[in-house]
Structures are given as structure tokens and as C-alpha cells.
Amino acid sequence: MLVRDGQVVGRGWTQPGGRPHAETEALARAGEAAQGATAYVTLEPCSHWGRTPPCCDALIRAGVKRVVVAAGDPDARVDGRGLARLREAGVQVETGLFQAEAVALNAGFSRRVTLGRPVVLLKLATTLDGRIATARGESKWITGPEARRAAHAMRARHDAMLVGSGTVLADDPDLTCRLPGMAPRGENVPLARVVADARLRTPPTARLVQTARSLPTWIATAPGHKPAELAPYQQAGVEMLTVPRGKPAGLDLAALLATLAQRGITRVMAEGGAGIAAGLLRDGLVDRIAWFHAPGIIGGDGLAAVQALPLALLSAMPRFRRVASRPLGVDWLTEFEREEP
């Protein structure tokens, strides 16, 4: 955002696909009014040439007088260089305003740059005793309409949805964002649907497969499948991702997340099932949990939200801290962040 004489003269945000950056968008809207203005940015302006010129150079050329930066850029190509270049050009630079909020906002970008993977939200919708279905597999609906709307709103804030093949077999989901009044995501910012399916159990008749030509659908599977086994999915428009096998079974989920990061995915929402949840937790890949609790109890014969990890000691238990909690109709949503070691 660009402010001059107490008036906002330009606003900008990074465009779909990551380019152009927010600074150049705001400068374009401000025009000559950017001269002598103050720029407020969430992330340190870039200082390197990529697909576009450096944003710090654009700010200097426009005659911006002052730049207020919430958080530094963890990218090694920037990481303080953007701030230094601005100061060398005589631009007043201030840092740290709403830093915590900016870090949270850019968590996906930061995880991709520093860890080579997206930030991962594990969404669970269970009874009070942590069950997601009855012994016969009935699960619709454990939570009420308010909770389901909130879950769809969460989908809109992510780049990709991740489920296992068991969820596809049990529920045949669409994995789309269905909220009345919400504009559809543009072609440049599609919500990718990702199925972790080492054994290639996803039926070609599944709704995810049948809608793959209109919505990005990726099936991650283990190497070694014959071309004839892959052909029905590829002909339907599914993109097949080859990922190494993991232990005790299934895929190497860290490798899968790295593959998604290479495709520009910064935020993944994992919705199930119990095997995917256990795998992500076991490998320390869950950054946040959104846990929807319904005020009911199914009992021990119901399907648990998380399969066995397993754990020999309590000290090995994945731990999270509560950061938010609110009622949603008759249900309750509690959000957690991983406790860093």
C-alpha cells in the first residue's frame, strides 16, 4: 500500500501465480502520486532478477520516500539485500510493524523457501471421542452445516487439497470449494486436488477423475505401474505424479510435499483419511490442525481420525498449542499450531 499526505494512493497484491509482485501493482495504480509516498509492505521487497525486475529498484525509481516492512524475506537471494539497497538509495526503511501477522500470512511461502515444502493444515471433523465414522462407515454428517461451511472457507485459502485413496473409495469427494456467493477461483489460481495413492486404487469412475479436465487433479503414486494402468487416468486429464514409497506403507509424504512445492504449491489442506493424518503426523509434517468437534460419541468400534503412529513413549508424541477456538452452530472449532522442538 502507498500512502501520501495521509491518503492511500495505491494498493497492490501479488498476482495469481506469484507475478507481478504487490509493490509493482501498487506503483502502477499510484502513478506519479508515488513520488514522496510511504510504502507499507508485508514482505521485504525483492532485490534479484527473476521473471520480473527487482521490486526495490521499482520503488527507488518511483521516488518513494519511506518503506515500512513487516517481515524480512527468508529467500537467500534477498534476505536483507532488498532493505540494504533501499537504504543505499536514501530511502528511509523501518521494519517490524505487525511482524508476527506478516510471518503467519506468508507461512506457506516461507516453508517452501526454507524447508522445500508447503505449509500443511490437517483438518479433522470428529465426534468428541475422535471418531470420523461408524463401524459401518457412515460419516455424513458428523458435523453440522455451519462447520462444513467453515471447512469450505478454509479450502478457499489453500492451493491444494490432499486426501488418501481410502477417502476417495469411501466418500467419492469433489474436493471443491462450494460456498454461495464466493467467486470461483481463476484459471491461474486453481485449487488442485491431490490423491496419495501408492497402489493406484482410485477408481477411474471417481468424481475427481471424471472432472479432471476442468479442475486440476493429481494422483501421486509409487513407481513401477505399467503404462496400461496409468492410461485411464491420463486419458481423463489426471496428471500422474511418481513419488517414492514410504514406510510402513504408502508413499513418502515428505517427497510428495516437496514435489508439490516444486509446482508452486505453498499451502496444503489435508482432509483425510486416517492413514494420511497418521503419516503426516508421524513424519512431523503437520504445521496446523483445524479440529471440528461434534457433540456426540460413537465409541471404540468407530473409525478413528488418526491411525496408529505408533508411539512407545509419550515424549515422542506430536505436540501442538491451541491458538484459537470458537463455536460453529452446535459444533466447536479449535485450531492448533505445532510446538517447535
Distance between the termini: 36 Å
Arrangement of strands in the largest sheet = 11-10-9-8-12-6-13-16-15
Write the element-wise H/E pattern from the N-terminal end onward.
EEHEHEHEHHEEHEHEHEHEHEHEEEE
Tell me the strand percentage band: 25-35%
By DSSP (H or I, 4+ residues per run), the number of helices equals 11
Q: Please count the beta strands (DSSP E, at least 2 residues each).
A: 16
Q: Indicate the percent of residues in helices.
A: 25-40%
Major sheet details: 9 strands, mixed
Structural class: alpha/beta
* Rg (C-alpha, Å): 23 Å
| CA-based shape | globular
Topology of this protein?
Layout: E1 2-4, E2 7-10, H1 22-30, E3 38-43, H2 55-61, E4 66-71, H3 81-88, E5 92-95, H4 99-105, H5 107-115, E6 119-127, E7 131-133, H6 145-156, E8 160-164, H7 165-171, E9 192-196, H8 207-210, E10 217-221, H9 227-235, E11 239-242, H10 253-262, E12 267-272, H11 274-282, E13 288-294, E14 303-304, E15 320-328, E16 331-338
Parallel strand pairs: 3-4, 4-5, 6-12, 6-13, 8-9, 8-12, 9-10, 10-11
Antiparallel strand pairs: 1-2, 1-3, 7-14, 13-16, 15-16
